[in-house]
Amino acid sequence: MNIVGEHVFSGPRDEVYRMLQDPEVLASALPNTQSLTKIDDAHYESRINIRVGPVSGMFLGKLEVIDEVAPESCTLNLEGRAGRAFATGTLHLGFVDQASGSTLLKYVGEAKAGGALANVGPRIIDRAAQQLVNQVFKALDETLKARMAANEGQLVRLAEAGEGNQGMSN
Q: What pTM does this model have?
C-alpha cells in the first residue's frame, strides 16, 4: 500500500518539526493511544488500540526516526503488532516553509499488512490509513494553533509589561 499526500500546518516549519518530536503531543493526536514513550532521540514505543474492519486490538508499536535533516525532512520506520495482526511501514516527511508563514508537509511512503490484518483487504486498510493520517494531522494542526496563540499572548503580555516599566523609569 502506498501512502502519498500533503498537509498544510498553520505555523512555521521549526515549530511544526519541534512539535512532531514531542511524545505528549503525538500521543494526544493519535486516536486511542494508551502510551507513547520516547526511548531516545530516534526511537519511540507505543501502545495504541486500533480497529481496521473486523480486526481490532492493542497494537504494540515501534517507531524509528532516520535520515533526519531537521527541520527539513526525516524518514519514519514503523512497525506494530497485535496478536496475529501486524503492519510495517516507511514514511518520508518533507517540511517546506510557505510564504504565508505556514508549513507544507509532503509525505510519501509504503505500508505492509500481515497476519489477520492482511485478510481485511487493501481498500479497507487504505481507507482506514488515510482517515488516521487526516485525523492525526488535523489534531496536530489544532495543537500548533493553540501553541502559537499562547506564545503570541505571552509576547503581548511581555511587551505590555515592558511598556509599563518604561513609563515608570521616566
A: 0.85
Count of domains observed in the chain:
1
CATH number at residue 86: 3.30.530.20
pLDDT tens digits, one per residue of 51-73 = 998 999 999 999 999 999 999 99
- Assigned C-alpha cell, 103: 508549513
DSSP E strand boundaries for 41-149? 43-52, 55-69, 73-82, 85-97, 103-115
For residues 91-96, give the mean pLDDT: 97
Give the DSSP letter of residue 125: H
- Measuring CA to CA, which residue among 3, 145, 1, 16 is closest to residue 70? 16
Q: Is residue 108 part of a domain?
A: yes
CA 40 to chain centroid, in Å, comes to: 17
